[in-house]
Write a structure and sequence with these properties.
The chain is an alpha+beta fold. It contains eight helices and ten strands.
């Protein structure tokens, strides 16, 4: 398979002017959304993405939308349907034919604790919208029936040339358009390189600790 490489989205998004402040990197914007009065506004960031030529090139390069993604995930998680035991592999092989390499230094985000299965399946659903990652992380923390559960937000940088995936095209008339997701289908290594606990909470909409994890993906 001769996959192409997506153009670097971050080079066209940053420096990013967000709520009258300028941020040089995705990391500084993410931390500011978590630690200052900046609002993690997913629709507003989506609008920034939709007016970006590189992001338009990303989403127009894929034929896959959320419906296919949901079905692929369902197939991969099924354990009892012995008749269709080969379907996840066949489905994945077909997706891999259309996947592209993610560019070096690109940043993606995902919410919540990293499932142990990720390193075995090599399947990771991420987003290029930091506000979406924060909002989803807050929802996950609220749904966990443990007091003082942490809001976990993960910052992932692509550092290897063999990371395969594709942007997911969303229906523009539904809330799914705010996801700005990238489905990663294959990688060699996902490594935690740093972890930051934010104890001093000043944001009124978060009443528990924030854990910010930094990964490298190759």
């Amino acid at each position: 398979m001769n996959q192409s490489t997506l153009p670097l989205l971050d080079s066209s998004l940053y420096p990013q002017v967000w709520q009258q402040q300028t941020f040089i990197t995705p990391q500084t914007l993410l931390k500011a959304m978590l630690t200052t009065d900046l609002i993690p506004d997913a629709p507003a960031f989506t609008q920034q993405l939709l007016t970006n030529d590189t992001y338009q090139e990303w989403v127009n390069s894929t034929v896959f939308g959320r419906y296919l993604h949901r079905n692929f995930t369902a197939f991969y998680q099924q354990t009892e349907d012995s008749f269709n035991t080969n379907m996840p592999t066949l489905f994945r092989q077909e997706l891999m034919r259309h996947a592209q390499y993610l560019p070096l230094e690109q940043t993606v985000f995902f919410a919540g604790d990293l499932p142990k299965s990720i390193r075995q399946t090599k399947i990771l659903v991420t987003t290029v919208n930091p506000a979406t990652a924060i909002i989803n992380a807050q929802k996950i923390a609220e749904n966990i029936k443990i007091s003082h559960s942490a809001t976990i937000v993960n910052h992932v940088k692509i550092v290897g040339k063999q990371v395969l995936g594709f942007p997911i095209r969303h229906n523009k008339r539904t809330s799914e358009r705010l996801r700005n997701e990238v489905l990663i289908l294959d990688f060699q290594d996902l490594r935690l390189v740093n972890e930051l606990t934010i104890e001093d909470i000043k944001k009124s909409n978060i009443d528990h600790a924030i854990l910010l994890r930094f990964y490298e993906l190759r």
